[in-house]
Task: structure prediction
Amino acid sequence: MNAFFENLLIKLISKSNQRILLPFYHKITDEENTFTKHLYPPRKINDFKADLRVLQKYYKQISVQEFSRISKSKKKITKNYFHLSFDDGLSNFYKVAAPILLENNISATLFVNSDFVDNKALFYRYKASLLYQFYEESSKKEKNKFYDFFDKKKNIRESLFSINFNNKALLDDIANAIDYSFEEYLEREKPYLSSLQIEELIEMGFTIGAHSKNHPLYTDISFEEQINQTTDSINWLVEKFNIDYKLFAFPFTDLGVSNTFFEELSKEQIIDVSFGTAGIKKDSFETNFQRLTFEIGSQNGESYLLKEYIKYFLKRPLKKNTMPRY
Result:
């Protein structure tokens, strides 16, 4: 990026008053055919290293504890900061991202689903991805078995990825019909962090937060289930790993989550800080903050940031740069 655009980005960051950036990823890998295929593009290793250089160029890295302190302060923020996070508690973080971050002296928070730690179960969207990969490689006879479960007028990809949290058992039914074992996949590939790996990461200086029990879209479940998913996953982490902080990142998005939800958990002191995924955007609830995905394909991190800050200013006259709450 040339000097003009560098200076423009610096000015936009300052004038936006959005000086704490919260980039997030799921996994860092050069592999293509994994359980994330068809869902999101994992950041490639060299692109991730380039992202870190960009972030360190414009911001100072801070721990989540420092972030919490700064964000709750009534003083105006006059410096730029960033804190990284990784969703879904994938073992890829331990193997690939953690060594890179340690080498660069950068902290990060991992948000894990309590039901998936130690590879006890698999996120339903990852199941859909694996089943579609199986379908792509199957014989015509095997492909026909999929149509026993869906409208023959719809394609299989669309049908599989339209399955939501409330009818996710259909994925297990399909797997049984085609003799595909998610249990064997979990045992063989171990996509999630083990408890021992999490303990080691905590000792290395990384922080851990909850990402619900089993990754529902919160607008797909009742208010009571939203409270249970959040409370149970946070309490499990605190007890399991003896941590003295309570962090939570919404699975998918916090769009549509009510003020009542935040008020209830704040009253019970269930959460210290929570995070959404709406990008560079304000939030009307003072302990909830929006993160910006950095799974951006082949895009350059610097150009991406410039576009995101421009979008923030374009939305401001329309009052669309604050997360709506009801």
Notes: The mean pLDDT is 95. The longest strand covers residues 108-112.
